[in-house]
Amino acid sequence: MTSPTDGVVFESVTKRYGDVTAVDDVSFRVAQGELVTLLGPSGCGKTTTLRMVAGLESVSSGRVLIGGTDVTLRAANERDVSMVFQSYALFPHMNVLDNVCYGPLSMRMERAKAREIAHGKLAMLGLAGLERRLPSELSGGQQQRVAVARSLVLEPKVLLFDEPLSNLDAKLRRRVRQEIRELQQKLALTVLYVTHDQEEALAVSDHIIVMDGGRIAQQGTPHDLYESPASRFLADFIGDANLVDGELAVTASGASFGAGGVSAPVRADGMAAGPATLAVRPHRLRLVDAGRGLVPGTCKRAAYLGSRAEYVVESPWGELLVFDADALTLRGRDEPVGVDFDPGAVILLAR
Ligand SMILES: Nc1ncnc2c1ncn2[C@@H]1O[C@H](COP(=O)(O)OP(=O)(O)O)[C@@H](O)[C@H]1O
Ligand SMILES: [Mg+2]
Questions:
Q1: Domain containing 314 — which CATH number?
Q2: Is the whole-model pTM more than 0.90?
Q3: CA-to-CA distance for 23 and 262, rounded, in angstroms?
Q4: How far does the chain reach from its first CA to its final CA, in angstroms?
Q5: Probe ligand 1: pick from 15, 17, 86, 196, max atoms within 8 Å of CB?
Q6: How far is residue 162's CA from residue 147's CA, in Å, rounded to a whole number?
Q7: Under a CB-based contact definition with an 8 Å cutoff, are residues 339 and 285 in contact?
Q8: Are residues 183 and 290 in the same domain?
Q9: pLDDT per position in the chain (351 positions), as tens?
């Protein structure tokens, strides 16, 4: 059984460096067995937050709890957390096994016992047989897995990842992120994960905390953040979005959104009439024949991508990016078209 105090609790934490407030009154929780991601552009305070959980950085105010215990004033080695760094931080002169045994040995574990546990973790990560290699004799993905094995070997309460995939190429990133997620789920690890890559965050997380300028902009499940972004920044930052500034009109018979002299029915969902921004994902738009659909336009660019066609359409609503699942009838450049969507496909944001 897990209690609500297990995992990590971050309570109104602020971190100042002189005049810079790197983290500004941030509160969140990582439940036991959950993977929570801190996502945001460079400089938004992700690493600082992670380092305050690890005890590598002190807090200016607020509290940090791990497993129900207030660890705010505890040193890093008294917190039962382990961190996996972007650069892996493997010892280059030590082989894989010695790298993984280093932590337990420095905690005075018996050598035979440390080796046994290390062999177990390496096997679990698909690294059996590579124990005698030096880090320089491994691929990037293998080095990353050694770094994970090294942080798992002490069986910490909480595992912290700071942009663990940024040194890998795109294909490997996808595979290793799946491996990390599978391992986390299989072992029910409690993980706080940092990335600036929204797709990676969507792929691995139970819960995402989006940070902007040291503050939490929004938090929720991947689905919540993608389908119901709370602001223009969030709609734009997570996934592709067309953003159109206009006016929302609400009458007894329904709501409509207008921009550039063209109006379309939308669901107001309780929003008041007035200036609004419409956000719509490219795959929620469809291209139809000219004279049909909700917004008229001209096809400016068309690309056939096999599984879909991608269009840029010039319209009274500005340039619209359209991912059309119907890639069979590719529209041509300068062809007049209509853009269509369902009223429920758009997100309305106050402006
Ligand atoms: N040791 C430090 N001294 C002064 N400013 C710092 C220090 N560490 C981080 N900062 C500042 O705090 C802010 C957040 O940094 P960081 O947490 O590293 O962001 P992220 O990991 O999201 O890229 C940045 O403005 C950064 O310049
Ligand atoms: Mg960082």
A1: 2.40.50.140
A2: no
A3: 43
A4: 45
A5: 17
A6: 12
A7: yes
A8: no
A9: 455 557 999 999 999 999 999 999 999 999 999 999 999 999 999 999 999 999 999 999 999 999 999 999 999 989 999 888 766 678 999 999 999 999 889 888 999 999 999 999 898 888 999 999 999 999 888 888 899 889 888 888 899 999 988 877 888 788 888 888 988 998 899 999 999 999 999 999 999 999 999 999 999 999 999 999 999 999 999 999 999 999 999 988 899 999 999 999 999 888 999 999 999 999 999 999 999 999 999 999 999 888 899 999 999 999 999 999 887 778 989 999 999 999 989 999 988
Ligand 1 atom nearest 214 alpha carbon: 14
Whether residues 61 and 40 share a domain: the answer is yes
Cα dist from 70 to 51, 65, 74, whole Å: 16, 4, 8
The boundaries of the domain holding residue 180 are 6-233
* Interval between CA 168 and ligand 2 midpoint (Å): 16
SS3 50: helix
Residues 229 and 245 grouped into a single domain: no
Pair (219, 76) in one structural domain: yes
Do 30 and 150 lie in a common domain?
A: yes
From the CA of 17, give the closest atom in ligand 1: 4
User: Which residues form ligand 1's pocket by a CB distance below 6 Å?
Assistant: 17, 20, 22, 40, 42-48
